[in-house]
Structures are given as structure tokens and as C-alpha cells.
TrEMBL record:
NCBIfam families: PRK00179.1. The keyword Calcium does not apply. This is Glucose-6-phosphate isomerase. InterPro entries: G6P_Isomerase, G6P_Isomerase_C, Phosphoglucose_isomerase_CS, SIS_dom_sf, SIS_PGI_1, SIS_PGI_2. Its main location: cytoplasm. SUPFAM superfamilies: SIS domain. Keywords: Cytoplasm, Gluconeogenesis, Glycolysis, Isomerase. The active site is at E363 (proton donor), H394, K518. The gene is pgi2.
Amino acid sequence: MSEMNADSRKTRLNRTPEWLALGKHREALGQTHLRELFETNPGRGADYTLRVGDLYIDYSKHLVTDETLALLRELAAATGVAELRDAMFRGEKINTTEDRAVLHTALRAPRDAVVEVDGENVVPAVHAVLDKMAAFSEQVRSGKWTGFTGKRIKNVVNIGIGGSDLGPAMAYEALRAFTDRGLTLRFVSNVDGADLHEALRGLDPAETLFIIASKTFTTIETITNATSARTWLLAGLGGDDAAVARHFVALSTNAEKVEEFGIDPANMFGFWDWVGGRYSFDSAIGLSLMIAIGPDAFREMLDGFHTVDEHFRTAPPERNAPLLMGMLGVWYGGFFDAHSHAVLPYSHYLSRFTAYLQQLDMESNGKSVDRDGNPVDWHTGPVVWGTPGTNGQHAYYQLLHQGTRMIPADFIGFARPVAELEPELEAQHDLLMANFFAQTQALAFGKTEEEVRAEGVAEALVPHKTFRGNHPTTTILADELTPAVLGQLVALYEHKVFVQGAVWNIDSFDQWGVELGKVLAKQVEPALIDGSRTEDLDPSTRELVSTYRKLRGR
Ligand code: F6P
């Protein structure tokens, strides 16, 4: 980072003049309602919009004025967001606690781009892996790659967890309409044996390919499931170890561990330590997806990512969508005490999108010490949640509309459903989208007491039927959910998360918080099995373990 930026970091975020100015501005804004903001500036519905690639982003229904936006940009400038962004794109080791570069953007760089890590251009290696993935995917899709008994592969089971599962699983759902429907894809992540059990039901081992996805290849859940999958395969194919080579491939950065597990390194697709797990599904981790949608569609998706990378890198702050979306989150978290953020896709195909974003956002920005290890005294990442919108409308939207909390929300919708829908199902799309537009309207503008009374509602019911409104939302609209649009959406959120981490001065690229649970699980397991080492447990856990053992008849 530049000297200037390092200096500005010496001032605590919430003592900077820019933060204090936003605080004053927030006070002045008081209870200003979105209705007033639209009355003052009816043009904001068109003015407060952006186009990025194929995405149309409307941020007019936010509690912001031109002044708010200018102050937020000043905060972004003072906290060095642009400098950190440039350092990331240059391959500098901005993940300081792990001493690593953060270069998921290199995964979608064009073949002729140059991105250096420690003086070496990594782009040729990225494309070499993509080419190897493409060749393998084509072999599986065409039936050239056969199982041990010579049968064609019909089932692909991805075994991985966290970033080695959520991305490909989400994208497979999102792009189902683009997949080879002759292939069955399943994703196994949970160490609960039920997950693998259900995934393997009805599958013929002779037709099944396992993709073991693990950056470290040491993750206990994945290695345990992979071992069980190998046992299942060998039991089904007569016990010859040679079968493993035709039915197991690995996606990893750890060739040694892959070999130790018994997978031929020739069947390994590599990536690098500068790809964070939750930023990895456009690396080799996306192999299952590439098999499903084919290499061309996968490359279209990468181009979509790259479009938004370029936008984030070069667009001026006033027109920079990830910057804007990130700063809006900083605004609500810092000055409206908003604790959560809903992402509500109006597409059945995006049913796993928010679950994917939960890891992306919460594992990145769920931190409470700054880059220098000092406790932060401002809120960092929000709780991210949500499911496809229309289902949510009949479940938790009540709280969005009339609850006491502020919950900013992103609404994601498409002008056209996927091409393959039957005409009568295609016709349902307008109803879906009518809900999409109606919800953000109701959330923003609500319904006043006067409007309720004018409908002749009994006085006692007026408070119950009044909608305060003033709930901020972003609307993201695209023509159709294509591979390119999916790439654009994911990159948009990746960079939004980046912006927030930069402002909050936290390391968005480590995840030390998941380690303690892993270590403790190793201590608890022997206590469950043979009752040993219970003296190491705290009194509550010891009691729970003892009850568990009794229930298990031990
Ligand atoms: O949950 C912690 C974590 O380290 C994630 O960051 C990561 O995506 C996941 O585990 C899986 O790790 P691996 O790909 O190394 O198996």
C-alpha cells in the first residue's frame, strides 16, 4: 500500500473526519422518508442507476442523497479502497495474516494478460489448467472417458465443503438450463453420512465419477467422505484398486496429499495458494460445473467475471457498482445499526445463490480485529441471508415489511425466463416479476395511515394495516440468467465484499475463526467413541458427551 494510505490507517476508522462527517449527515437526515426523497427528486428513479455488463442496477430506493453518496466516496478514498484494489490486481500479498496474494481475478484474465506473483506471470498456468479441464470435460461429456468396466460416465459426484462445494453447487443449480441433461450431478459436503448415502442412492459405481475438491486436501469432512466413496466404489467394482484411477479425480493445491490418498497426480487439476477457497469456483474447483455446462459456457462465465473485474478496476467512483454497493452496506451498518443484509433472487435457479454468498461475505468480513490486530470498534460484516423471493414473501417478508429492524435487501430478477420453459410456464414469468417490482415498491413507500383510513379500514385495525415503508433495497435486473450473467453477479458481490473489508480495515481473505471448532472436534471425538479424555472437556460439554454416550448405548 502507498505511504499515504498507510498513514491514513493510523487514524481509527470511526475517528476519521470522513466518518464523522457521515455521522453528522446521518443526524441531519433524521427520519427522512424515501417518499420525501422521491418527491424532492423524481428523477432519481432513472438517475440512481448503473449499468455493468448485462446488469442494470437501481439504487434509487436507498436512504441516500447526492451528498450521502459524495461523503461515502470520500470515506472510500480516505480508507484507501482504490489503493488496496490496485494492490490486489497487481498480485501484492494483501492477505497479510497468511502472507498471500489475492488473485481470483487472474483466474478469469484473458490468455494474453500478464499478472505477476513474486515476479512470475501466472496467467499461462491458469490457462493451462483451464485447457486441461476443458479436455477432460469433453472426454466425459462425449463418453470417451469411460469407467473401469468400460461403461460411459453418467453420474458426477463432487465431494468438497465450503468453497470447494458452495460455488460449483450454486452455479450448477443456476445454470441447469445450460447443462447436459444426460448427466446426473450431485454435491456431497456434510460429514453426516446421510449426505453421501443419499447422493449415492441409485447410482451405478461403474458409471460414477468422483471429483474430490479440496484446496488443502486435509479437510476432515472431505477426506472422510472421499474415503467412504472409494470404499463404495471398490465394493461395487470387485475390489480392484486400479478402478480408482478411472473414477476419482482431484482438485487441489496439494499434490502430495492427493497422491497419498491414492489419486494419480495425472488426474489432478491444480490451483494456487493465491486463490481463496470462497473465491475458487472459477478455478479447477469448477470442474464439475464445466463437465455439466461444457467448456464454452464455462469460458463465457469467466468472461462475465472479467467484465466486472475490469469495471471495478477502471470505472470512476461515481459509476463503480461494487464500490457503491459496498459503501451502501457501510452506511447502513455504521449509521443505521443494520445487522443483516438480505439477498432475494427472483429466480428458482438462484436457490443456492444466497447460501453461496453467506460464505463469500461472512467468512470474508466476519472479523473483529483490524489488519494490525487491534480490536475494531465499528460493525464489520452483516449476517447475510435470503432465499428465492416469492417463497420468502409467504414466510419472512412480514418482518421485512412491519418488523422493527432495518434490513437492507438486494432483489435480483430477470426480464426473461430460461428459453426451454413451456409456453404456459413462460407466461408465469410476468406474475413472478410483478411480485419482484411490487415488493421493492411496498418496502420503500409503504402505506400511510391516511391511505389505510381512506380504504374504510376500522380505526382499531389502522395501525396493523399501516406500512411504515422506508426499507432500502437495491434492484439488480438482467435480461436472462446466462453463464456470463452469473459470472458478472458473482464478481459484483466478490468486489462489494472487498470494498467493505477495505473500509473496515480487516483482512477479508483469512478465516482463522473456523479453526478453533476444528481443533476441538478432534478432542471431543475420542471422548464420544471410548469415553477417553473427558477430563479435558468443560463441565457442560462433559455432561452432554456423557448423555450422548448413554443414548448410543456406550
Ligand atoms: O471452512 C473453512 C474452510 O477453510 C473454507 O475457507 C474452505 O472453503 C473450506 O474450509 C474447504 O477447504 P478445502 O478446500 O481446503 O477442503
